[in-house]
Design goal:
With 321 residues, this protein is α+β, with helices and mostly antiparallel strands. It has helices at 35-45, 69-82, 97-109, 114-129, 138-162, 189-195, 229-245, 259-268, 281-288, 294-303, and strands spanning 8-10, 15-17, 27-31, 49-51, 54-58, 180-182, 185-187, 246-248, 254-256, 307-309. The protein has 10 helices and 10 strands.
Amino acid sequence: MTRPGDVGVSSGDCYWSTAPRRGPLNKLIVRFPSNKVARELREFGQVGTTLGLGLRFPLLSSSVSQISPLRTGWSMVRSIVATPPPRPHGKGSVDHSALAGILRSLATDGDQRLPDLDGDLAMYVASLATVDPDQLGVSEALVYWINLYNAGALRLAADAQKAGEHTVLRVPGAFQQPFVNVAGRPLSLHSIENGKVRRFKDPRIHAALVCGSVSCPTLRAEPYTGIGVDAQLDDQIRHFLTAGAAIRSDDDQLLLSRVFAWYGADFVRPRRMPALLPASRSAIREALTRWLPTELADWAGRAKPKVVFMEYDWSLRCSVG
């Protein structure tokens, strides 16, 4: 429940308050039900100070190569509060063949073609902006938002290339700057991811959304389609985990992509997506077992290994395959 003067959101796990506070404006107060939960989040983010039943932490990361999970969390909250949830109730569909041609070019020629394809991406995004996604069916609306997000991420990577930057994080605005108007509302990549896509309550989307970086999932070489999205998402999460997002280390630890540190709670509590409070590492391991390669899944289920999240490489790259 929010209090007078607060703009907040409750995930059922915690309460995030954006009410004005004394002190620096780049601070956020988060209140949790117990110190145990607070310690879990502090370990998860590797920053922050426990204050009674809550945390106070800076939203700015000290390293552009390792963006703070807590800064990401604040952006999630803003996106969720400011973005109306999707309400698909129609039977329409959208033609994504223009994106198919772009993806074929990238798969054939590599991401060095991105600047040349930026005009085609802009036209595709503009065509989607003319559609009211709430007039689509549920599956069609989900793929609408996924494809729109990925097209926007490709444009972001193209901007980084044209500016000579080595990471998308150096592009002003990056994930927070609106790049499209849908149904009269300006939307950024964060708005689409957290305010739209995650609200379809399917955690496999985290293997489908790309960010133009080395550690992000490989971009599928075809658009997502309403009729095939379930099989496509299942293939994506399995491929992501097999291709290096889940590894058994030499000292028998389970190494996971940092994507699962940021969004693992969506896999543990999909009905609460977008889940804001991080899940325990053991819960994330258990939730991912169904998609792990058989041998790795059998070992993880039997040995219950310690989970370690790998460093995230934000270097510029758009892999298509």
